[in-house]
Amino acid sequence: MKSMTKLMVVAMLLVAALVVAPVAAARTIDTNGTIIYVGEENLKFDTGAGIAGNFTSASITKLVHFTDQTADKTIIVSDPTNFELKKSEVGTTTGGYYLFGDTASEKGKEVGTIEVQIPSVTLDVVLNKTPAARKDSVDGKSVTRDTELIFELDTNLGGFKGVPGAPKMDIEVTLPGGGVTTQFQETDLKGIDISQSTRFYVDGATVPNKGYFNLSGAEAGTYTAIAKWPSNSDFYGKGFNSNSVTFEVLTKALAISANKDSVVRGNSFTVTITGESKEDYYLFVKKVSLPDGKTYPVIAPGQNGVVNSTAANFTDNFKVGSNKFDKVDDKTVPGEDNAQAWINTNAGGTRTIQFNTDETTDDRQFTIRVQSLTDSGTYDEVKVRVEKGEVTITASGTGVYYIGEEVTLSGTNTDGQKVYLFLTGPNLGTNGVRLDDLYFEATDSEDATFKVVDVEADDTWSYKWDTSALNKTIDDGGYTVYAVSEARNKAKLSGVKYATASIQLKPAYLTAISSGAVVAKGDDLKITGTAQGNPAEGVQIWIFGKNLQRIHESATVESDGSFEYEFEDTTNLAAGQYFMVIQHPMSNGFGVIPVGTQLQGSSPGVGVNTVELSQLKASDAASAVINALDSPNVDDTYVKLTFNVEEPYIIIDPIGDKEAGSKFTISGTTNAAVGDKMIIDVTSAAFGPSKKTEAAGFGSVSGNVVVEKGDGANKWSFEVDAANLKPDQYSVKVECIETDTSTTTNFNLVEAVETTPTTEVETTAPVGEETTTVPAGEETTEPTPAPGFGALVALAGLGAVAFLVLRRK
Description:
Elements: H1 2-20, E1 27-29, E2 34-37, E3 43-45, E4 62-67, E5 70-76, H2 87-90, E6 95-100, E7 112-117, E8 121-127, E9 141-144, E10 148-155, E11 168-174, E12 180-181, E13 183-184, E14 187-188, E15 192-193, E16 199-202, E17 213-214, E18 221-228, E19 244-250, E20 255-258, E21 262-264, E22 268-274, E23 280-285, E24 298-299, E25 306-308, E26 317-320, E27 323-326, E28 340-344, E29 350-356, E30 365-372, E31 379-387, E32 394-395, E33 400-402, E34 406-412, E35 418-424, E36 433-434, E37 437-441, E38 451-454, E39 460-466, E40 477-484, E41 498-506, E42 510-514, E43 518-520, E44 525-531, E45 539-545, E46 548-555, E47 562-567, E48 576-584, E49 592-595, E50 598-601, E51 611-612, H3 618-629, E52 637-646, E53 650-652, E54 658-659, E55 663-670, E56 677-684, E57 700-706, E58 714-721, E59 728-736, E60 741-750, E61 761-762, E62 773-774, H4 789-808
Parallel strand pairs: 1-3, 2-7, 9-19, 21-31, 33-41, 43-52, 54-60
Antiparallel strand pairs: 4-5, 4-6, 6-7, 8-10, 10-16, 10-17, 11-12, 11-15, 11-18, 13-14, 18-19, 20-22, 22-29, 23-28, 23-30, 24-29, 25-28, 26-27, 30-31, 32-34, 34-39, 35-36, 35-38, 35-40, 36-37, 40-41, 42-44, 44-47, 45-46, 45-48, 48-52, 49-50, 50-51, 53-55, 55-58, 56-57, 56-59, 59-60, 61-62
């Protein structure tokens, strides 16, 4: 039993010794500017000859980082003979640190300096064909078994150079089957010295007997490599391993694939070549029999690593470097078709090439081949089908438009990069005319005779058709807009994709009304209406009166066709009749225009004589404008209006006597405009000084009302609540600010007459006789009793009212 106890004690002591024993040998920091790395352990500071002052290693208590003269990071050194530089303490603050003892922490009083860095290791796998090719990474790429690779490491760990026992790293490779190894192609990748330089290659200098890695015997599949710190390193498990690099090893020497099995013509597709790294190949579309006017898919020009067939040195028998290849005439296509090219793969042995199609590309299946330049038996093929697309068209709105409006035409085109628009309808060319120039008849295969619109990347297109800009007068009626994938008119639509939209065009029209036929001086007159046809110039307004001529007025027409014109400040107008003409330009601009005080035609061709309007009476000037607009050569339309200007007035309807405490309405009429405000003041005649011993008798009511439309004259009304008004005579003043008009009247507010409700009279007969009840309003044969207290009060009240009336008289 005692022996067992002794064994257990010994075992525990051994475990304790293992726990406190350091994992790696200590590194002595004995020189100013020495680099130490985050994560290092067992560091020992030695003042030595390189540190100023009479300090020992035990005197160092902290590391301090300064920005200018300000300390922004302090790391406590609890044991300067066994110190660990932890990531949590450094954070991201790297660079120069100053060493201080117990008492000093200011620049100039340090006992030494060190450089703190975070260990950084970057791994890459690159081509090893030539020293220059070592810049070509295969990370994320595919390579063939004939490719030579080499590992590249880039570090900041030069601070370990020459340090005894400097840490080393391993490169782990994950194999296609999932296994992990530190041996690759019979080469040991363990214990790599990472301190020799900032960038180096894992070749013969670092791994014995191996300058590069040949993949000839490598398993096909995906490989992943990473540089790791081993378990006996200070940096193990602290997140300082390198990045991962992934590459794929292929079994096939040459392959081609397409990103699409089929494509709608007008769109592009790509093929990807996989072969040897930095190798030349021949790419072409295999020859087929095409109908007249149809073409092959073509290789987009200017691509990296691609020499198109249109290049001057692309001959029937061509040479790339030392490799000569004779084209096979029954497989390749003519060089001018741009359907063949030389291609050169990148470091990963791949190259992606774009083919374009358009509306001329034949709708069929094409075979695309990639061919070795050195071995005609080494090739691969992929098939891509080119299909016809579709064209659609829609017109905004309801399909009914007034000539002059803007119509948005839109749709899709998956059959090409352009749409060709033309119009058919009454009095237009049989096979259609160009949409924006009606004098051009659409001609087969001539782009200029169509309105051509580009198709966006998402296959949509849109065009805003401004019917006010048409250069030819067209009739109202039904029209058809054609959207075609090629420049084909109505007679040549067979075999092409197209769509149509039916629209109705109507002549523009004009409506207008005034805010009133009568305008009080000082009021504004408002004209509102609708001018369909989207006239960009708006509408022109001519106004003539006794002392007024306005012939340069205009109103803007909104997008919904509405317009508004306000004739402001009529204070100085003479009373009388005025004439107004509102003119719409229709589709060809204004045919009749004002120039100074003259009326003229917009051009000699409209046949309008010049008229000096300032010499004419108002009615004659208005008639001259109307006569000009009625000319057969002028398509303008118009509306004529008249209005009368009057002296402003306000009338108060009779009010009569009103009872105190009641509610009643004061109303009247006016020629002020609808919407004008009326200010109402109701004031007691008792206004004046009051005695301190008496309650004030003054009372008033005021407010604003708005003039409303009436039958004939406009009307206004004001509600009066007399609950707080005492019986008296009251003055009413009604004022309109807009027309600077007011009027007054009086009325009496009298005591309310108290009425006694009628009740049924019940009589009680002597014992033995019947009792009868007389209904209200019926007579009784019983004697009428003398007036009681209530009746006397009522009579007294009536007497008081009579006295008040007599007093006022």
